[in-house]
Design goal:
The structure is a single chain. By secondary structure, the chain is α+β, with helices and mostly antiparallel strands. Helices cover 29% and strands 22% of the residues. It has 6 helices and 6 strands. It has helices at 5-25, 29-33, 127-130, 137-141, 161-171, 173-187; strands spanning 47-53, 60-64, 75-84, 105-114, 119-125, 199-204. α1 runs antiparallel to α5 (161-171). The longest helix has 21 residues, at 5-25. It starts with a helix and ends with a strand.
């Protein structure tokens, strides 16, 4: 079900208001996630360590960056956003993790940021990228209302980031639904473990 116009507009207003609030405090989104000293930032490491998990929804996010040769010319890094596997009880995965001790999560979407700290694109990735429980797009879409990250990261001293992501997800819901469906269409033609395929669908992030 697509987000209705009032819900989408409310998400946009909340997103702009929170962005302005963070700017007034002198620390934008990515600055709240990364180490204070740039030299402390390590490629591939999860920020925060152990991920940011909402204590109520148990949805989670983490931010990381790939080596320069594995990202776009102006890409800094990206968020990965997950529902807990428990949110999809009774749904048969399209594919399961290879690791026996894999974290019980369902990848929903990623959000790329450029080197100026601005969001650029939403993306859906192949299963091997996060070694997750790959769930059908329609099952995830039916549970997007459970993807609440408001308090994710607060216990690790990261404030407002989880709320910003919740607002962004709410505003961009039509795009997220579209890329999940496109992801499944692509998965019907490829092996979810094929490393030749990493990003399966994208949408630009833009505030209309």
């Amino acid at each position: 079900m697509l987000a209705d116009a009032p819900s989408r507009e409310a998400g946009r207003a909340a997103l702009l208001a929170l962005s302005a609030e963070m700017a007034a405090e002198g620390a934008m989104l990515i600055e709240r996630v990364l180490p204070a000293e740039p030299s402390g930032f390590r490629q591939w490491d999860h920020y925060p360590n152990g991920d940011a998990i909402d204590p109520n929804s148990t949805a989670r996010w983490f931010y990381h960056a790939h080596p320069p040769e594995q990202r776009g010319s102006n890409e800094h890094g990206h968020f990965h956003i997950f529902l807990p596997l428990s949110a999809l009880v009774g749904v048969e995965p399209l594919h399961r993790p290879e690791k026996d001790d894999a974290v019980e999560v369902v990848h929903v979407v990623g959000l790329n940021f450029d080197c100026d700290g601005l969001p650029t694109t939403w993306m859906a990735v192949n299963q091997w990228v996060t070694d997750e429980y790959l769930m059908p797009a329609e099952a995830i879409i039916a549970r997007l209302d459970r993807l609440v990250l408001d308090d994710a990261g607060i216990d690790k001293g990261i404030d407002k980031v989880g709320r910003w992501l919740t607002h962004a997800l709410r505003y961009s819901r039509p795009d997220i639904e579209a890329i999940l469906r496109e992801r499944d269409a692509k998965l019907a033609t490829i092996d979810p473990r094929d490393r030749a395929y990493e990003i399966l669908s994208t949408r630009n992030f833009a505030l209309d």
